[in-house]
Write a structure and sequence with these properties.
The complex is a heterodimer. Chain A is of the alpha+beta class. Chain A has five helices and five strands; from the N terminus they run E-E-H-E-E-E-H-H-H-H. Helix content of chain B is 36%, strand content 25%. The mean pLDDT of chain B is 95. The chains are: A alpha+beta, B alpha+beta. Bound molecules: flavin-adenine dinucleotide and FE2/S2 (inorganic) cluster (2 copies). The site of flavin-adenine dinucleotide (FAD) has 29 residues of chain B, from strand 2, helix 2, helix 8 and strand 10.
Chain lengths: 158, 290
């Protein structure tokens, strides 16, 4: 099999990798790129554990071919903290215990960050609808929704 | 295993050439939210994938001088939601497209993919039928135009000929006193497949319906244009008798399946109920569109 060479930007850094034409972006992230923060829950677009941004738009990396990254900008959970400084959402998820096993967490964080960039003052209903594509089998969602609402409030106050 | 080739041409002519040359082994890639799921599950093993998103016309959303829209077949639901005027002119079409999947799925899923996938439950299709949208397709023998309702022929099948690619949707200019709406019934509140979907597009003058189109989804092998329902509404003030007649026409048009989401009796009844509710929303919006 001949691999394809892909040049892209990940979390602001130029990157190159090799992949099979049938590999998904999630395969590439977790494989050759070694960015294992994005998780694989279903590989069918249902769970959101693989959430990333493509040119700033929220998508499922399991529903994108890795070769499609050529010339585009990818954002993953690894780009969320700035060095040792957690993003306010990450900090709040810890404080509110908005995670248990953690499988859904990176997807929840990436999706929530995309929401707050678009809408800094979402209603609880808007948060719940926005996160409808992120499944969590542990928390019952309440703590996650609360963490997003409180972070939004904190960030607006700054 | 045969090797998969990925092509991402920059022009439509190249795409048509490559797609036609690769024959039945080739698949068009728009947002991939159906295609990649089918490939992952092993249901589909294409030899060539032609990604059409590098062709500007495929993702463009343009409003003409007459107010009509031309929407690229591969424009995503999120791109349509972010467009400054599309949702004001076609609120029903937008709400139908934005019901497809999650925000993540919205970031990629296109109306062209929804239509070409050929599911009888595709959410954008009844709304586009009601809108009177025309699709432009291009193939080895040039361009042609088809009404949206003439695209699906059976579950998973369309009237596109081998080598043809769907290019764009043309939505007509909006008359004053005209608007649209889409409602679907699902067992959950989010992330599910329609049991019934109804799109209604109405024009009213002094409270009287002067034009109407009704699209009905998930209750037959293909999405349907229900002309009897439209005829029952035209000339009426959307009074009870007219709505009852239109609802009965929707129920009569149903040829549904029985499955875990809904029985035949349930789908048939709900088709009528949703027609009434959707028409009421479309009429309310039309009254505001002076
Ligand atoms: C989690 C999840 C939830 C979903 N929920 C819904 C839902 O609620 N309602 C709903 O209707 N659908 C739903 N879908 C299905 C899917 O997202 C939609 O059908 C979507 O509109 C497909 O668009 P796409 O651009 O991703 O298509 P793709 O997957 O790229 O293509 C779909 C098919 O059409 C062909 N095709 C695409 N574009 C063209 C073109 N321009 N010319 C010729 N052929 C073409 C492809 O070859 C493929 O066979 C869901 C999918 C997922 C994964
Ligand atoms: S792994 Fe991508 S949505 Fe579940
Ligand atoms: S914390 Fe376990 S799935 Fe969400």
């Amino acid at each position: 099999m001949s691999k394809v060479h892909v040049t892209t930007t990940i979390n602001g850094e130029p990157m190159e990798f090799l992949c099979e034409p049938s590999d998904t972006m999630l395969d590439a992230l977790r494989g050759p790129l070694g960015l294992t923060g994005s998780k694989e829950g279903c590989s069918s677009g249902d769970c959101g554990a693989c959430s990333i941004t493509l040119d700033d738009r929220l998508i499922c990396s399991c529903l994108m071919l890795a070769v499609e990254a050529e010339g585009h900008r990818i954002g993953t959970i690894e780009g969320m903290a700035k060095g040792e400084h957690l993003h306010p959402l990450q900090q709040k998820f810890l404080e509110e215990a908005a995670l248990q096993c953690g499988i859904c967490t990176s997807g929840m964080l990436v999706a929530s960050e995309a929401l707050l960039k678009k809408n800094p003052d979402p209603s609880e209903e808007e948060v719940r609808f926005w996160l409808a594509g992120n499944l969590c089998r542990c928390t019952g969602y309440d703590k996650i929704v609360r963490a997003v609402m409180e972070t939004a409030q904190d960030m607006r106050a700054q | 295993m045969t090797e998969l080739r990925y092509l991402a041409p920059n022009t439509l002519d190249e795409a048509v050439g490559a797609f036609a040359a690769a024959g039945s082994a080739a698949r068009i890639l728009a947002g991939g939210t159906d295609l990649l799921v089918q490939m992952r599950s092993g249901a589909l093993k294409p030899g060539v994938i032609v990604d059409i998103k590098k062709i500007p016309e495929m993702t463009a959303i343009e409003q003409g001088a007459d107010g009509g829209f031309r929407v690229g077949a591969a424009a995503s639901g999120m791109a349509l939601a972010e467009h400054r005027s599309f949702g004001k002119v076609w609120p029903g079409v937008l709400e139908a497209i934005n019901l497809i999947g999650s925000k993540q799925v919205q970031g990629r899923a296109s109306a062209g993919g929804n239509l070409c996938n050929g599911s009888p439950a595709g959410d954008s299709v009844p709304a586009l039928v009601a809108a009177g949208a025309i699709v432009t397709v291009q193939g080895p023998n040039g361009r042609r135009e088809i009404k949206v309702e003439d695209v699906p022929t059976a579950p998973g099948r369309t009237s596109l000929k081998p080598g043809e690619i769907m290019v764009s949707f043309t939505l007509p200019p909006r008359a004053a006193g005209s608007s649209d709406a889409y409602l679907r019934m699902i067992p959950r509140t989010e992330m599910d497949i329609a049991v019934v979907g109804v799109g209604v597009n109405l024009t009213l003058k002094d409270g009287v319906v002067t034009a109407a189109r009704v699209g009905l989804g998930a209750v037959a092998p293909t999405v349907l244009l229900v002309q009897d329902a439209a005829r029952a509404l035209i000339g009426s003030k959307l009074d009870d008798a007219a709505l009852a007649k239109a609802a009965a026409a929707c129920s009569a048009a149903c040829r549904p399946i029985d499955d875990k989401r809904g029985t035949i009796a349930y789908r048939t009844k709900v088709a009528g109920v949703l027609l009434r509710r959707t028409a009421a929303i479309a009429a309310q919006r039309a009254a505001q569109n002076k």
